[in-house]
Every structure is written in structure tokens, then in C-alpha cells.
Amino acid sequence: MQHxxxxxxxxxxxxxxxxxQKDVSTAGFRRLLREISLLLAYEVTRELELTTTRIVTPLxxxxxPTLEGKKLALIxxxxxxxxxxDGILELIPGARVGFIGLYRDPxxxxxxxxxxxxxxxxxxxxxxxxxxMLATGNSSVAAIDMLKARGARNLRFLCLLAAPEGVExxxxxxxxxxxxTAALDERLDDHGYIVPGLGDAGDRMFGxx
Length: 209
Ligand code: URA
What we know:
Blueprint: E1 4-6, H1 10-20, H2 26-44, E2 50-56, E3 61-67, E4 73-77, H3 82-91, E5 96-104, E6 111-117, E7 126-130, E8 133-134, H4 138-149, E9 154-158, E10 161-162, H5 164-173, E11 179-181, E12 183-184, E13 187-188, E14 194-195, H6 201-206
Parallel strand pairs: 1-11, 4-5, 4-7, 7-9, 8-10, 9-11, 10-12
Antiparallel strand pairs: 2-3, 5-6, 13-14
Uracil (URA) is lined by residues 80, 133, 135, 192-194, 197, 200-202.
């Protein structure tokens, strides 16, 4: 599978362009994020394995395709990752959900774990890490390090916007983890924001600032 997939379905691109605009309301931003996350979830789960189950239709029996194996795990990187969860859970209501909290140490600038609660048996689940903005890649790399240490092997990273710097950092640290994004933007600015981007995703979805 390729390392970076840009999900450029016209509906995704159109909704993202609305979300980028600075005067979109918090409610509007959240609604669009939920809608886009449904469409992204469709792409990121394309490789889920199928088996067949014997079922009975009104006309006859058949071997019908059904998902195989353990329920997949969705891991939200707090806090902005939660904005992607709702839409994905609408499509995959049985998914198991975990949360990872990281803060940046002011001296070393390295991500430090402050919370981690993830589903069991990660080695047997497709594990999708969600965070809307892949900027420097530091927190994504750290979160995936934590998940691999807990057994996760079949990982995907799902975001809304990616910067080339973050994609490169992920490619170096975790070349085995495919990235799915709605767009690849130009660059990071001096404060680590994605340009042209959409600002602080957490502030925009939760109405903080
Ligand atoms: N996090 C955000 O919320 N926005 C950015 O542009 C970069 C990181």
C-alpha cells in the first residue's frame, strides 16, 4: 500500500474548502468535520479483511461477505482527534476506541505522555490513529511508538490536513504506517501551523481560543 493517500473525492475537497474559511461557525466546522470523517473512514478501511457467513435471504441461503477478525481500534490523539471520532463511529459503530494524550515538554520540546487508555489485543486489530492535523509529526510518531509498544502491528494514520514535514517525519519513523489525508498543504509556518491550513483545529471544533 502507498505511504500517503490523498482522499480527493470532490465532496471531501469541497467540504474541506468550506472548513478552511475563517468565518465558519464552530457548529458548522464540527458538522463538516463529522461529514468528512465519514468519507475518510470509507477509504481508510478499504483493506479490512472479509470472510463469508452463511445467511438466509427471503429466496435462498448464501455465503455472504462479512468482516473478519476482531473489531478495529480507533485511537484519538487528544484533544483534536475526538473531532474525527464521531463520524467514523457512525460508519463503524462496533469499533473499539482508545485515547492518547501528549503534551510538549517546554525544555526538550519532545512529546510527553500524560494519558493512554487503549483497547486490548491491539496485535489482532486494524488500528487507526486519528488526529486532524499532521503538522511536525512529533505527536503522531510518539503515539504510534506507544501503540507499537502495546502490540499494534496493522496501523493506519488518518488526518484531515498534512504538511510535507509531518509526512516525511512519519515516513522516516514509521514507513509501515500508511497515512490518509484529505489534503497535503504547502508547509509549516514558524509556529508549527500548517499553511494555508485552517488554523487550530481543536479551537475551531470546540470553540475555544
Ligand atoms: N495543529 C493545528 O491545530 N493546526 C495546525 O495548523 C497545526 C497543528
